Amino acid sequence: MPLTEQSFTYREKPLNAQFENHVLVLGAGGHAKVISEILEDSGMQIAGFVTLDGSDQLFCGHIVHSEDQLASLFESGIQKIFPAIGDNQLRSNLANKVTAMGFTIVNALDPHSRISRSAKLGIGIAVMPGACVNADSTISDFAIVNTNASIDHDCSIGTATHIAPGATLSGNVKVGSFTLIGTGSSVRDNMTIGSNTIVGVGSAVVCDIPNDVIAVGTPARFSKK
After folding, report:
1. Where in the sequence numbering do the catalytic residues fall?
2. In terms of CB atoms within 10 Å, which end of the chain has fewer, N or C?
3. In 3-state terms, what secondary structure has residue 204?
4. For residue range 118-146, what is the model confidence (pLDDT) as tens digits?
């Protein structure tokens, strides 16, 4: 169940060392399942999931908290969080709001991914098993590099963009914010793909794609949303 986009209030609270490695997960869907395992494999402890109304049941072995418990969880010392929500815009909005509460947003970088030491990473980034981010690429805040996706050298991935499973970006590709590069698609080197755009499953991008369009096919051709 999604969270609402209500206003939160920033609170200053010293970090409780007892909960230094504890992290909350925003969302309780399939994406959150994968993220929780990545966080645990990276040495973090899941402090629970957060949805709109919460639940008395467990999800992946952890309690599901309600949205209105966020402030009290923060006050208790659990101050790290990850936005595990598939929708690009909603993920970004909620991440910004919990940041305003004082939460620290962590990254979820799977130990079985490969991330170049020269890559530049923002916050709230998910890099899934088998994914590769090569030299001098930039991954902006709240982006997803999904299972077995490949981002080659000198690429730039915008805020809250999703590179879906098995997608392949050749070198020096620039992708705007809030864009979806669909499963199994491929992008030729030196291409630019705009913001708020969708590249369909299995498409081959061999020319620049503008903002606010859907691009599908081999080669990919675009039309307004």
Report:
1. 153
2. C
3. strand
4. 999 999 999 999 999 999 999 999 999 99
